[in-house]
Design a protein that fits this description.
homodimer; 2 helices; 3% helix; five-stranded antiparallel β-sheet; 350 residues; Tachylectin-2, Chain A; four-stranded antiparallel β-sheet
């Protein structure tokens, strides 16, 4: 298999991104949606920030809170000596029944002519702003349909992780379409066109009592209301996708079917990318599934970082028989790998 | 508060129900949907059966399995000495990563003229028959809309617990509408009419990583595709609804608003019923919520049984200002309690 990492990898690192406030620092920039808009390749970056910690005896975290009917950003500090707090996981703080995240993600626009060198906006594009976004907005995917860019992302709050949908024509004005998949559901990938009269989306519910984090598919007439949910694909007993699987990039059309670049993680949370071929006329039917990963953590920036051993994609660009896979590496930086459609077919034995 | 248990309670017990096969026994009959059809009050009973255990060294369980493209009932036996099996919970068996339920539920019709004495069909009405129903179909709710009876129920399988929708005009022929809320989601209550042009349903997702089992509401144009999910109501810190809450009966309309009889359980899984008043024109708005339960386990059949200390309703009949609450008691029998709408208003302080 010939997949080629860009020699400029990682393309975007936290130091490239201006924080949204002077008292914040950008910790991670990863898991970006991708599309073309006018002459540009646009990445919708997930930017994770945290307050600059100025008092060594405290941990200060950001949260979106309702104040007089409006949701606004607040900072909450926890005393490191407070025995009712659990600081053992650096990503979160538990206090009694409540949980807080130490960083908060928003979505930022980056633009490029060549797909390699990006100009990154200085201010957020989508900033958390509802009760469903208390802890942030994560992992955007963007699908262009009939002149509108539909962007779905994980809305994270104390109520759980849901998937919210917004749309824009110009990457400036954003219209809310509401929660399309309630808690717990993320990794939603909306197909870019109607198939036999219906829109389709991959989604990844996480059941609590019985079942695993696996891939489902649903259909819709309007992209807002979803039904006819079907189980699409499960984890495997052993190996790189034995822990959890979920949608990655927005699927793209080829002559042999829809190709989906998805993620699979093993029981040690090592995240790889796989490829899936789905029937052109019925995307609930799987034609082929990669036995081996199409990309696995090997480069230094994929193996080491904020959360090492992770490659995770929210979007690809397929142009001229070549697939540019943008992916988050180690939950910290953004990288690019390229592979031809022919090579993906080979991997899938089709 | 004046709520009156029927003096013939429990109205239906397992011995009243003929098993679906001669080698099965009915263990529990509970959590029934209720509606009027022609001159009858119809209960859609949840009937839980298990194979009669004939070999003391084994535990035999029922499961729906795919055989040559068709789903059929099979029996699987586990050796009680098999150390890879966990038999510690009498409701289930765990073997390696897999789980099996010791009983399987189907849905049975019972008819009555007076709402107290029921004739129970000898054969199942809805029997598990898909990959989503491997372990059974549970807790039906029925909503009458425009000449059709829409029945939703929990479809339980190794993939998780989802909510499936079917419809019928005659309680004989059933049409599948598919999964309307994917795993993990149950306690779905569909409103009986459009409100401002949209159908509404209460639902109860169970998030895995963050959040609690709490009540959400969604809307639809066709009852099949659902969107605009909103968080409706959470658990409380202490008391009878501190563990989990969820929809109970199909909501009914009164002059002061929609009344929903829901369930709340504390952290010891003691299940009570509460009442909720929702805005007539906007059922996402709560007008009042009962501080105290409207019904709590007190009678012997509510306190003792298959799973004691449970009262749980899937349906009520509201006629002549009186609400007949049909409810499962101790997950084993069906009982009836009556309360006037005036008394519910008093409980809600409205």
């Amino acid at each position: 298999m010939v997949i080629e990492r860009n020699r400029k990898n990682p393309l975007i690192i936290p130091a490239d991104v201006k924080p949204s406030r002077e008292d914040f620092s950008v910790e991670c920039v990863f898991n970006a949606g991708v599309t073309r808009y006018n002459d540009d390749i646009i990445l919708l970056l997930r930017v994770a920030e945290r307050p600059i910690q100025t008092d060594e005896s405290k941990v200060t975290v950001p949260i979106i809170k309702e104040v007089n009917g409006k949701f606004e950003l607040q900072l909450i500090s926890f005393d490191k000596n407070d025995s009712s707090c659990d600081f053992s996981d650096s990503r979160l703080i538990k206090k009694n029944d409540e949980m807080y995240l130490t960083s908060m993600s928003h979505i930022r626009i980056a633009k490029s002519k060549d797909g390699i060198n990006f100009d990154i906006d200085e201010t957020p594009f989508i900033f958390p702003q509802t009760q469903y976004e208390e802890f942030g907005v994560e992992d955007p995917r963007v699908t262009f349909i009939d002149g509108e860019y539909y962007i779905n992302y994980s809305a994270v709050s104390s109520k759980g992780i849901a998937t919210n949908l917004v749309k824009t024509k110009d990457f400036k004005n954003v219209e809310q379409e509401g929660i399309i998949f309630p808690v717990e559901n993320r990794d939603v990938c909306i197909y870019p066109e109607k198939i036999n009269g219906k829109y389709y989306a991959l989604h990844r519910p996480v059941p609590s009592m019985i079942g695993n984090p696996e891939m489902w598919i649903a259909s819709s007439e309007d992209l807002i209301h979803w039904g006819r949910h079907e189980f699409l694909m499960g984890t495997k007993k052993e190996g790189w996708e034995s822990g959890r699987i979920g949608g990655g990039a927005v699927p793209f059309k080829t002559e042999k079917g829809w190709i989906e670049i998805y993620h699979g993680a093993d029981k040690n949370n090592r995240y790889c990318l796989g490829a899936l071929l789905l029937d052109l006329d019925d995307p609930t039917k799987i034609i082929a599934r990669s036995e081996k990963p199409i990309l696995e953590p090997e480069a230094k920036y994929e193996v080491e970082g904020f959360f090492g051993n992770v490659v995770f994609s929210c979007g690809v660009l397929c142009e001229n028989e070549c697939v540019k896979i943008y992916y988050g590496a180690s939950d910290e930086v953004i990288a690019l790998a390229e592979i031809s459609i022919e090579e993906i077919y080979k991997l899938l034995n089709v």
